[in-house]
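Lab notebook, bench 4. Continuing the backlog of folding jobs that were queued last week. Each job is logged with the same field layout so the records can be merged later without manual cleanup. Today's entry covers EcsC family protein, a 250-residue chain. Filled in by technician R.K.

JOB TYPE: sequence-to-structure
TARGET: EcsC family protein
LENGTH: 250
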Amino acid sequence: MDHFEDYYEGRVKRELAEWEKSLFEEKGFLFKASKQMSMKMNQAIPKKAQQAITSAVKVTVKSVLTGAKFIPKNPVIKEASLYERDQKAIEFMDKYRKIAVAEGAATGAGGILLGLADFPAFLAIKMNLLFEIAHIYGYDTRSYAERVFILYLFQLAFSSNETRRISYEIICSWKDRLTRYDAPPVTEPEWETFQQEYRDSIDFRKMLQLLPGIGAIVGAWANNGLTKELGHTAMNGYRLRYLADHPVKH
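JOB STATUS: finished
OUTPUT FIELD FOLLOWS
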């Protein structure tokens, strides 16, 4: 390993330690207030709309587990340094962030019906990003185990503190768990917790998108922030795996 790679991996490890700390720190007043407001707005959304959101999540989870729709055309990157992979991941995060911003603005401008249509569309954008990042870090999403890992990453980004801690522990010990997912089980897991946690975490930003008059601005703003958060979570999740799978050799 040359001096730059050695230095860069040391820097990444420090960043990962800071990220881990931030994952579990106590949420502030603004977060709690926005969460309460989000729950109230969630209750105000018509039941059919809530069912549409839940259905979109279920369809997306099934598509991820079967590999339908999301496996990228871009090949798995076999030979590259961690620095090169990080730069490529940042490039793809920016690409998908711009797509999400445009999509959020377009659907947000259309009121509640198009605003609701944004949920499955935005879910697809986020999953496409996760599959691309997997290939960038050298993990082939044609493998069932890699697709399960993607769902845990998604759950890490969009879940309660308790579920986030469980997801993080699973991600950190993935090397020991990998053989559990050599092939799909006879009965697909329901991932009910995943569906419920994601719906509950559709925060104040996305709820505001459904309001007339401000939907376009809020839709772009919300999708921008949420895509960046997911990309950051995915990048760090794969950094953890990459460092575990490629121990430093001096």
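OBSERVATION: The longest helix spans residues 215-245.
SIGNED: R.K.
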